Amino acid sequence: MVGISTAAIPASLRRANERTLLGALMRLGEASRAELAKVAGLSQPTIGKITSELLELGVLLEDDESALPNGVEEAAPKVGRPGRRLRLNDEQQRFLAIELDVAETRLAALPLRMREDNWTHRFATPDSPQAWQAQLARTIKKLSLHGLWGTLISVPGIVDEKAGRVLFSPNLHWSEKVSLPELVQQVVKLPALMIQEIRALALGHLATHPEAQNFLLVDFGQGVGGAIVKQGKLYDNPLPLCGELGHTPVAGNQRLCGCGARGCVETLVSRPGLLRSLAEARHAHRSPSWAELVAEIEQHGMPAWLADSLEAAATVIAGALNVLGLRQVVLPGHLVELPPAVIEYLSRAIERGAMWARFGEVLCTAAPRHRAAGLAVMGMDRLLVPVSHQEGLRSLKARA
Hints:
Oligomer: single chain
Radius of gyration: 23 Å
Helix content: 25-40%
Low-confidence stretches: 3-9, 67-81
Shape: globular
Number of strands: 15
Structural class: alpha/beta
Strand order of the largest sheet: 6-5-4-7-10
């Protein structure tokens, strides 16, 4: 859960207990009531009351711990009442997820907990909000919205999530001119929430790797962005601006960035930046394909221009680790699609610049994107047990 403190009045205390229980269950995967009480630090009567309500709402499922797989016989009967295991409901779809990206928009109906992203519908992102809304309406007709509690939207750029506004999107400027939640609600009559796309990735990595409680996630795609998880919680700022590593200037780089500045590191290591560098190295008049870049590295090894670009990115990332006091970097995105030598080179360069490497280990891990899983976490956090208002679990009874 994202985690925000509130005053200890009865309503907020109940909400805090619900958030604590769901957070513990996300980390554990499944647990008995006694285990949840121990991990969450709550009394068993409190756990019992909360879990009963969550079971009634369909947020949790209960399994008989004594049940064994087919064909397996119990060696000896157990004494006493069989224990029952609780888990988040991963069998019923509860959220409509929308990933708005520069090139493509993807949709899927999500359960509360998932391990692998499975986007079932997609369309090319148009160049205007009106065209996007019309295409969204046509696509949603193919989906079943029965039983859904809300719509969750992942968007690029600088995002004021509380206000539901995109303040600045270097690669998708039309999204700055509209309220995307309102645009979606005109099509889907459900509550709509928005989250910055890299923050969704960080929540997704946390959900699928609950042991990773402290990390900097840096995603390489059409741009380069970052998000921070500390002590199992997504890091929030006073300003709606966080992890904008891609817009750090690199000395000697004169490329114009979509943000309006020159020299941003993402003009070198984003997907378009890498292909531009390959074209310049070849003195080509056409843009090469991604497959050509892969073949270039496989056949000729690491080109000098790529090594220089990775060094620039590593300097920025290592500087962020030194400021944040973190030692783990998660690297999803298109660099994972290149030969392993690329991630290995970037990891070694980050380690050279990270202060903690002088005293201990700095971990750099290539990872798949888990944006849908992150959206499901956001939906639980802000729709099931929101901090800022008195809706949430109680209001879902009418829509369950």
